[in-house]
Amino acid sequence: MPPPYLRNMIQDLYKEKTSLFLYRTELFDRCHIKLRKKGGTAAMAAKKADEFISELFNGSDNLCRKKFSFTWNGENRIKNCKKIDLVGAYRLVLIHKDNNFILLYIGSHDECFRWIERNKGLSYKMDHKTDAVRIFHYAPDHDDILLQEVLNERRFVEEHEENLMKNIDDKVLLKIFSGFFSKTTSEGR
Question: Which of 36, 76, 167, 184 is the residue whose CA sits 20 to 30 A from 150?
Answer without folding.
Answer: 167
